[in-house]
């Protein structure tokens, strides 16, 4: 049972107490990894073509899940692609089924050397970890000075709006339907970046319609309360099972990737659901 508490200084919300490692392991059991993960390979290809420097280097995907996004990046041999993942089952899938270099565990425990990576990708991970500042600090340690950190993270006040609304109406304890532990405000993110040695290069906001819907400024979908209700335990799934790969027309991946980028707005906007932030690792003393 968790409470949702807020920082009086920056407005960030978080679950209290934070789930234990055992509780998180149950949440990220093999059943968590269903759905269409194949599209992530196309997304990785487009990310590499549009956002990564052409010179190549060492690339790390933190929280790489089954590894399909990383596989799309690794198709370009100019990039040495690495992944980290806390789920043993997902990490094993990426290694054994996709042939990727993926290590299992918390990033700080994986033994990557100082100033090793040119580019670190952290997409929808920061809000899931128990020590966000520690994760960002570790990213800074393993990045070369001037290296790039790509961060995608929900806009905390918007992300938690439905949870708070449901709690107030139903009088039930808050439950994060997506496994989010932290709900960061814009001010909190800026403080974190400075404290961990990053300079902001570029920011965008996306998920505009979903953000407006979460804030009650756009009609909510019927059944919006259902994900917040107490859930019966799901049956145990011993292994990761994916559906058959869907057939897609040539150019589908490029179309969807560019379509999503056209819907972004520059800056960190209060009404969008998600932020995309590109950061540069600043040089420290002696670097």
Task: Walk me through this protein's architecture.
The chain is α/β, with parallel strands linked by helices and 287 residues long. It has a single domain (11-222, 247-281), classed as Rossmann fold (3-Layer(aba) Sandwich). The protein is 31% helix and 23% strand. It has helices at 21-27, 39-51, 68-74, 88-96, 132-142, 156-159, 161-170, 186-195, 208-214, 252-262; strands at 3-6, 13-16, 57-62, 79-85, 101-104, 117-123, 143-154, 182-183, 198-206, 265-266, 274-281. The strands form two sheets. Strands 5-4-3-6-7-11-9-10 form an eight-stranded mixed beta sheet, with helices on both faces. It has a three-stranded antiparallel beta sheet with strand order 1-2-8. Strand 6 (117-123), helix 5 (132-142) and strand 7 form a beta-alpha-beta unit. Helix 2 crosses helix 3.
What topology does this entry show?
Blueprint: E1 3-6, E2 13-16, H1 21-27, H2 39-51, E3 57-62, H3 68-74, E4 79-85, H4 88-96, E5 101-104, E6 117-123, H5 132-142, E7 143-154, H6 156-159, H7 161-170, E8 182-183, H8 186-195, E9 198-206, H9 208-214, H10 252-262, E10 265-266, E11 274-281
Parallel strand pairs: 3-4, 3-6, 4-5, 6-7
Antiparallel strand pairs: 1-2, 2-8, 7-11, 9-10, 9-11
